[in-house]
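Worked example 4.2. Below are the chains of a multi-component assembly; read each line carefully before continuing.
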Amino acid sequence: MLTVALPKGALLKESIRRLQAIGLDFSLFLDASNRLLQIVEPTGTAQALLVRAQDVPVYVEYGQAQLGIVGYDVLREKHSQVAQLADLQFGTCRLSVAVKQTSPYRSALELPPHCRIASKFVHCAKDYFNQLNLPVEIVPLSGSVELGPLTGMSEAIVDLVSTGRTLKENGLVELEVLFESTARLVAHPLSYRLNLDQMSAWIDRLQQQSDLTASTAAPLKMPVGN
Amino acid sequence: MIYQPPAGARDFLPLEVVQKRWLEQRLQQTFASWSYQQIITPTLERLDTLMAGEAIKPETVIQLRDAEEGLLGLRPELTASIARAAVTRMAGAIYPQRLYYNANIFRRSPTASSQQEFFQAGVELLGSHGLMADAEILLLLRDCLTHLNLHQWQVILGEAGLTTSLLSVFPDPIREQVRRAIAQLDRVGLLALPLTPELRQRASLLMDLRGQPAQVLARVAKLDLEPDQQLRVQHLQELTDLLADKLPLHLDLSLLQTFDYYTGIVFEVIATTKTEVRVVGQGGRYDSLLALYHPQQQIIPGIGFSLNLEDLHQVALLKGHLPHRPPASNWLVVPQQAQAIAACFAYAQTLRSESPEVDAIRVEIALEPRSPAETRDYARQRQIPYIAWIGSNGTPKIEAVDLAQDIAAC
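Applying the procedure described above to all two chains together yields the following C-alpha cells:
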C-alpha cells in the first residue's frame, strides 16, 4: 500500500489539505483527540505516518514510506538520498544568520573568526561558514536558538525565519539569508523508478496542483484536481 | 577491556557462515554452468589502479601507505582489479574471457559506524560486445536469482551511453548539473537550472524516460536522434524484445551514476520483500575501461555484474530459504573406558572413510567423561542421530537417538 510520511508541526495542515484535494484523506491527524501515528485513508488506497519533520526524509530514504512532504531546509540539513519531485510552494521560510540588534557586526563576513554560532541546522551552518572561509564554532541546540546571543553564549545564530516576528521580539536582526525553503514532495528513489503502488499517478496530481498554485501565485482556496 | 572488531567490520558465526556459503555455492555453481572461471585478485591494490576508471572517489577507499609502493587501497569493487589482471597478466588470451569472483570489498563510509566490509559475487565477460553478450549477462543474472529461490525481483535497465549522448545538447558548464539532477531524480533542482524553455523541456523529458520498454523506446524514437543514438535505441529494442518474457525489465534512461565507467547498458537488481525494496546487485557495460590498463591502450569491451551478498542474505532470510542451523554431526563416538580410546578414534575414522565425499558424514568423538544419560542428552541437544559406544574390547554398540523427544528444549 502507498505510504506517505507527513511532518508534525507547521507544514502538517497544508500537507493534509493538498492530499485531500487529490483524494487522499488523512484529516484524522488534525483531530486533537487523535493519538494514532499511522492511519489508513478511508478508501483503503494509502496510509500515512505522522513523524517529526526531520524524520520524514529518513522514512522515505529507507523506503518505509514511498512519498513524503517535508521542508527543503530539512533536506539540505540531512543530505537525504531522496527524489525531490515537486516544490509544493507553501511553508515558505528562509534560513538566516542573525545577531543581537546591539551587535557591532552587520554582515556574516564581519563576524570574528572562531566565534560561536548557535543553530539547529549544524550542517547547513558549517557549510555556509566554510564557503565564507570563516572558521567558527557551531553550538548545536534543539530549540529556542534565539537565546544563544541573548544569553551571550553565541555571537550569532543560524535559524529559520518565516515572518521575522520571533527575531524582532527577541531583539535580534537578520544579517544574511543562506537559502529560501518551501515544502517539497519527496519520494523513495527505487520505488519511484519502479512506480510501486502506481505512485506516479498521485505524484502527477500533486505536481499539477502545485504548478497551478505557482501560476496563480495565490493561496489555494478550493480543492483542485480529481 | 573488551576487544571488539573495528566499527564497520563484523564476525560471521557458524550459522551465518553456513547461510552465506549456501548463497555463494549456488551462485558459483550457476557461474560455472555458464562456463565462467573463478579469478582471485589481491585485496590490496595500488590506489592508481583503483582510481583509473574515474568511478571511485578516493575518500571512499580505505587507504594504506607503504614505504615503497606509495598509496595503496583496499579494493572497493572487483572490476578494476580484474580489468588490470586481464590485460596485463593474460596477454595473448583468447577472447571472450568469462571470469567470476567471490570476494570481500571495502568501502569507507562517512559515518564510522556503518558497514565497511562487504562481500560480493559477480562476473565479468571480457572481449565481447553486442546483443548476445548483453543478453548472456542478463540471462545469467536471472539464472543466479532463480537458483537462490528469489522470486520477487526486477531489473531496472538503463543505457549510460545513450543517456550521456542525449545530454550532449546541454551546453558544457551546465551539462554536469543536469546530469547530476537526473541521476539523483532531483526534479526541483533540474527545473531551477537556468535553461531555455526548449532545453528545460528536454531535461524534463529525460528525467521521465522510464516504464515499459516498448513505451519508453517509442518516446525516445520521437526525438531527433543522431545515427549513433539510433543504433543504441535499436540495440535496446532488440535486447528488450529478446528478454521480454524472460526478465521483469523496467527501462529507465534516467538511471545514471554521477560518475562511472559505464558506456552501454547499466542495470540494478531490486528485490522486494514485505517491508522493503532493496538493491541486491548492479552491473553494466564498460567498453573503455580495459584500454586504460592495457600497455598499448588496446580497446577491449567488457560487461559484468556483482551481487551484494549481505543484501541477498537479508532478503533470503526474510523469505526463509536459508538453512536454520549448521549441519549436525551424524555420529557421536563414545569411549566407555580409558582402554577404548584408541579403538574409539579408529572406529570414528572407519565411519568417516565410508563417506562418499570428505564431509558427507560428520563424526564427532565424545571428549568429556559423561554418564550414558548425559551423553544421550548431549546427542539430543546437538541433534546427533547415532551414538556408537566403544567398549574396552573395541567393538561398537550402536544406538539410535530419539531426536524428536526433546526438540523443543534445544
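Take a moment to check your reading of the output against the notes. Chain A touches chain B at residues 62-64, 81, 83-87, 184, 187-196 (CB under 8 Å). The CA atoms of residues 17 and 216 of chain A lie 18 Å apart.
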